[in-house]
Design goal:
Elements lengths: L1 E5 L2 E3 L5 E8 L8 E6 L6 E6 L5 E3 L7 E6 L4 E6 L8 E7 L6 E2 L3 E5 L2
Parallel strand pairs: 2-11
Antiparallel strand pairs: 1-3, 3-8, 4-5, 4-9, 5-6, 7-8, 9-10, 9-11
């Protein structure tokens, strides 16, 4: 299993970014996918999740601003982030519950700052 995130960077408050996670090594369409984030000094937290059937759920802090989606033809899950705030600064990780413990990507840094 391999998960490779991309799309992070530096953005001003109120700006947007789209994260991508390219998956390989498993039958992508059969598994739910999630995005987590970890800010300095804080625990890793769930940001958004999408089931194999396309159902989604979000952390309260990002509802209405972030959108998770998936493209099974490209084995890729996305996180569209709008109206970014300084509190969204974190390393964002892609997660797939494949196998006994699941698999994580290497993370991509998102920094929201003026």
């Amino acid at each position: 299993v391999q998960l490779v995130e991309s799309g992070g960077g530096l953005v001003q408050p109120g700006g947007s970014l789209r994260l991508s996670c390219a998956a390989s090594g498993f039958t992508f369409s059969r598994y739910g996918m999630s995005w987590y984030r970890q800010a300095p000094g804080k625990q890793r937290e769930l940001v958004a999740a999408i089931s194999s059937g396309g159902s989604t759920n979000y952390a309260d802090s990002v509802k209405g601003r972030f959108t998770i989606s998936r493209d099974n033809a490209k084995n890729t899950v996305y996180l569209q982030m709008n109206s970014l705030q300084s509190e969204d600064t974190a390393v964002y990780y892609c997660y797939a519950k494949v196998g006994l413990f699941g698999s994580w990507g290497q993370g991509t840094q998102v920094t929201v700052s003026s």
